[in-house]
Amino acid sequence: xxxxxxxxxxxxxxxxxxxxxxxxxxxxxxxxxxxxxxxxxxxxxxxxxxxxxxxxxxxxxxxxxxxxxxxxxxxxxxxxxxxxxxxxxxxxxxxxxxxxxxxxxxxxxxxxxxxxxxxxxxxxxxxxxxxxxxxxxxxxxxxxxxxxxxxxxxxxxxxxxxxxxxxxxxxxxxxxxxxxxxxxxxxxxxxxxxxxxxxxxxxxxxxxxxxxxxxxxxxxxxxxxxxxxxxxxxxxxxxxxxxxxxxxxxxxxxxxxxxxxxxxxxxxxxxxxxxxxxxxxxxxxxxxxxxxxxxxxxxxxxxxxxxxxxxxxxxxxxxxxxxxxxxxxxxxxxxxxxxxxxxxxxxxxxxxxxxxxxxxxxxxxxxxxxxxxxxxxxxxxxxxxxxxxxxxxxxxxxxx
Length: 400
Description:
alpha/beta; Arc Repressor Mutant, subunit A; ATPase_NBD
């Protein structure tokens, strides 16, 4: 007789998932730490770790003997050969990476483009790079699946990209296209929502329960919400579109787009134009802005900072977050004059709502969206390690 009804996880399955989640999210942990954290006894922990080791999902290795007195417990870590592929299509590039179950990133690649990607081309490029990596950097790796972070509205139920206006995608069956091209299970989500999850788990929002995250990229401004420690997607998965709000602009001289939304006014393209660049990745743009003392550049940064502050104050008044995290070019704006941004936000927010507010920049930098996409790809494995073990390389068939 089965130890669980259909659809109800067994106690053992739940405990295996718990251990795998802990070592994936917290990093290497000793058996003693796992015993203390879970409340399970030592023999149960030894049995669970042994099972996960047999499944090649974790590895045990000796700790640094200089860091503890006596005989320390071996450390349990996610197996680095178990990886998820993460992809982020944008208007100017496709960025891809492999993220290990140990949270290492063994390979990362940015493919710059002179045209807008189509959904089909995105799937083909992902398949091409995965096939190439499996004969080189990922030879011997076991791929769990693929996560795609899209700058647009993604229907959570089926991975349909309802609208990615800057990419000119409408009702694109991206999940199906990538799965057919690669033969690998695929998750598709809004890039900012995935970035919020990544920063909550591993970055600037770690330990925070209520977070507003705004991401600034080539396709505009997106956002993600963590409320009570839980990611909020909304009824269809479309929550967090802060870039489509219409902020109040106090000075007419600050307005650049009549009847424009936030991402029309606070814009990466306008910053690139100010420093005389046609295209650049995040570090290059940040360096160019930081190095410039030209009045036009300083004025544009200041203008965008003032409008961003109004948008953030509105979010603070509605949601009362403990932490606001800014990623991408929004982080660059904040870093150029953080005190001014914070002062402008507090001046426009309700005092009680802002009294515990902490405005931070994303700690995961360029990798935040890729790490979030990888988390989506890892989700089923971590929830059910016994039945979602990825196939060995020899059994995987990736078509291009």
